[in-house]
């Protein structure tokens, strides 16, 4: 669960608050921005020194937007449903932060309720993807952006997060279709970011340092899941058999 899981609802996504990133962007002046944007000939020494900072922060400056295509997906097997912008932070991964973790969550609720809370600006948390018990996948945040998912700033910055529809104390919620769809998604994320397919890099929310969340819970079958991810990682790309007819895993 992103942040309001029954497994220990912490009210604040510690280390991931949007206010801290806004504070940072306050230091970037319009002038520095123009320089960072390419007018280097006009740059003095200070501006050159500022360039690295500007490169990292320019997308946070009001009025400047990195060009993105609306509805663009990182994973072709997903459907795009945008999360509220209050639940993630604009970034430029992997250029600003390397991506080296996949974090597995369980929603503690229905698919629809997870979509709804991730669209709610008051929720202050979300993951990049949600996988349903029927194997459907929605992407709500671009992988280049930082999702407030783990309650740990550095893990948020380095990870892609996947929610799974269900409750941690209900083993039957963890369906075959969900495992299979999630494994294809994780294999794709690992391939695209060069993440090793192992338990050091594919972790549960519970394994994030400092978290008080317990998901994906004791019924999540890691051996089975990792085997499916390994299989999907080595299999040739094929059409997804269920839920996403247009998908290419
Ligand atoms: Zn979680």
Automatic annotation (TrEMBL):
GO terms for molecular function: N-acetylmuramoyl-L-alanine amidase activity. This is N-acetylmuramoyl-L-alanine amidase. Its EC number is 3.5.1.28. Residues 1-28 are annotated as: Disordered. It catalyses: Hydrolyzes the link between N-acetylmuramoyl residues and L-amino acid residues in certain cell-wall glycopeptides. Residues 88-217 form the N-acetylmuramoyl-L-alanine amidase domain. Keywords: Cell wall biogenesis/degradation, Hydrolase. The lineage of its organism: Bacteria, Bacillati, Actinomycetota, Actinomycetes, Kitasatosporales. One of its GO terms (biological process) is cell wall organization. Pfam families: Amidase_2.
């Amino acid at each position: 669960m992103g942040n309001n899981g029954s497994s220990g609802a912490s009210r604040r996504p510690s280390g991931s608050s949007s206010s801290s990133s806004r504070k940072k962007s306050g230091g970037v002046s319009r002038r520095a921005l123009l320089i960072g944007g390419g007018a280097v000939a006009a740059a003095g020494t200070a501006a050159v020194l500022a360039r690295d900072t500007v490169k990292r922060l320019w997308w946070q400056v009001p009025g400047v937007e990195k060009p993105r295509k609306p509805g663009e997906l990182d994973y072709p097997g997903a459907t795009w449903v945008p999360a509220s912008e209050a639940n993630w932070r604009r970034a430029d991964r992997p250029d600003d932060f390397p991506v080296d973790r996949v974090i597995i969550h369980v929603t503690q609720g229905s698919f629809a309720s997870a979509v709804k809370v991730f669209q709610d600006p008051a929720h202050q948390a979300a993951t990049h993807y949600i996988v349903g018990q029927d194997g459907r996948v929605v992407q709500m945040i671009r992988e280049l952006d930082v999702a407030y998912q783990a309650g740990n700033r550095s893990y948020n910055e380095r990870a892609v997060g996947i929610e799974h529809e269900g409750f941690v104390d209900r083993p039957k919620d963890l369906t075959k279709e969900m495992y299979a769809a999630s494994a294809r998604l994780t294999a794709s994320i690992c391939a695209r970011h060069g993440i090793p397919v192992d338990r050091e890099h594919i972790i549960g929310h519970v394994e994030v340092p400092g978290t008080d969340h317990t998901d994906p819970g004791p019924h999540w079958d890691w051996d089975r899941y990792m085997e499916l991810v390994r299989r999907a990682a080595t299999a040739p790309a094929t059409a997804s058999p269920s839920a996403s007819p247009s998908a290419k895993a």
